[in-house]
Amino acid sequence: MTKEFKKRACLEPIIPYMPGKPIEEVERELGISDIIKMASNENPIGPSPRVMAAIIDYLPKLSLYPDGSAYYLKQALAARLGVAEQNIICGNGADELITFSGMTYLNPGDEIIICNPTFSEYEFTARVMDAVPVRVPSANFGHDLPAMLAAVTPRTKIIYVCNPNNPTGTMLTHAELESFIKEVPPHILVVMDEAYHEYVTDPAYVRSIEFLHAGYNVFILRTFSKIYGLAGLRVGYGLASPEIIADINTVREPFNVNAVAQIAAQAALEDNGHLLAVREANTQGRAYLAQEFARMGLSYVPSQANFIFVEVGVEARALFQRLLQKGVIVRPGDIFGCPQHVRVSFGTAEQNRRFIRTLEETLREMV
Ligand SMILES: *Cc1c(COP(=O)(O)O)cnc(C)c1O
Fold first, then answer.
1. pLDDT band at residue 54 using 50, 70 and 90 as cut-offs
2. Pocket of ligand 1 (CB under 6 A)
3. Which of 226, 234, 307 for a ligand 1 pocket mutation test, highest count of atoms within 8 Å of Cβ?
4. 223 CA to middle of ligand 1, Å?
5. CA 19, 25, 26 angle in degrees (round to 5)?
6. Domain range spanning residue 340?
7. Distance (Å) from CA 360 to ligand 1 centroid
8. Do 247 and 279 share a structural domain?
9. Burial 62-84, CB ≥16 within 10 A → b, else e
10. Pocket-testing residue among 90, 114, 121, ligand 1, by greatest number of atoms within 8 A of Cβ
């Protein structure tokens, strides 16, 4: 039968997200066995053992629907962050909360303002909602906040600020964001995506919850996927005024966060020692890669995240392919409009050393 219906016209420009092949598949194809994936900003240490134990304890209850309000997780987050339960919404990953922000507020033709390059989900959400992404070129690989303010129009509905920025790892300070937020007019929601918040070591980093308490229109996003090592479970949370949270709750499916994820996230919050160990290993990896890039004469963007954006001086796509053959997966920068950069997620100390050895050897082959 002919198909006499079309997908919505606004979906035409969307290129579906191309997930990498599973490591096992690449290993089989290449006939190698020790691939390291430093491409998706995943936690190389894994989740806390206490989280794994809590998950196992929960398994007999899998026949029950999850708690649709994520009551205990929100209680734990409220106590830890010094906010009220009414300030919190939990999501199937922070990604879902980005989608919710668009579903809640974007009418066709509304504009969003984003940095270029930044995380791709903001533009994706805008397109799905038939809204218009306005990309403002980065300055020194970070957000150009004055230029983003200058891009505001009466149609602007949301400004997404990714801090630290993915894929570049740059950070905005409290002072920078404070002067910015004061200038944002009241018809605009500022989404502050802080997926890498817990990795930041610079004391000048934003304390965004102060903006929430001061009454600004912010929606702060955090996730259990990165430092807590729970990317496979899908759980994140958003913080905003009770009014904004109530708005966003209208688009949420009743059981959006699965029960195992809720249990795991609560247990993760209780193991601060694990978080500190992951952060320390990350900080060391960050210093090591920066030092090795400097030794090799490669320029890199100083990072506050769990990855680093480095200029490799050759076509990143070709380098990516060669590294892949040697069992090292990185993210080539062409997808972010930077064809000579790669984004590398920090691994364990041993993985970091192997990455540097392999990179150095491969770059020698390529020049
Ligand atoms: C990883 C990431 C997220 C989303 O994480 P979830 O796994 O969906 O919680 C959100 N924003 C940025 C910038 C990220 O890098």
1. very high
2. 41, 93-95, 119, 162, 166, 193, 195, 223, 225, 231, 236
3. 226
4. 7
5. 85
6. 19-44+273-366
7. 30
8. no
9. eeeebbeebeebbebbbeebebe
10. 121
Tokens, residue 198 = 């817990």
Asked if the structure places residue 103 within a domain, the reply is: yes
Cα–Cα distances in Å, from 156 out to 12, 107, 233, 253, 300? 22, 11, 33, 27, 33
Q: What is the DSSP letter of 11?
A: G
pLDDT (tens digit per residue) in 119-168: 999 999 999 999 999 999 999 999 999 999 999 999 999 999 999 999 99
Is 316 a residue whose pLDDT tops 90? yes
Cis peptide bond upstream of 164, omega within 30: yes
Question: Per-residue pLDDT tens for 206-230?
Answer: 999 999 999 999 999 999 999 999 9
What are the counts of helices (DSSP H) followed by strands (DSSP E) for the chain?
Answer: 13, 13
Sign for the pseudo-dihedral over CA of 88, 91, 97, 103: negative
Total number of domains constituting the chain: 2
Quote the crossing angle between the two packed helices 71-81 and 259-270, to the nearest 10°. Answer: 30
Q: What is the pLDDT of residues 160-202, one digit of tens each?
A: 999 999 999 999 999 999 999 999 999 999 999 999 999 999 9
Is 166 found in the same domain as 92? Answer: yes
Which atom of ligand 1 is nearest to 95's Cα? 8
Atom 11 of ligand 1, residue of closest alpha carbon: 195
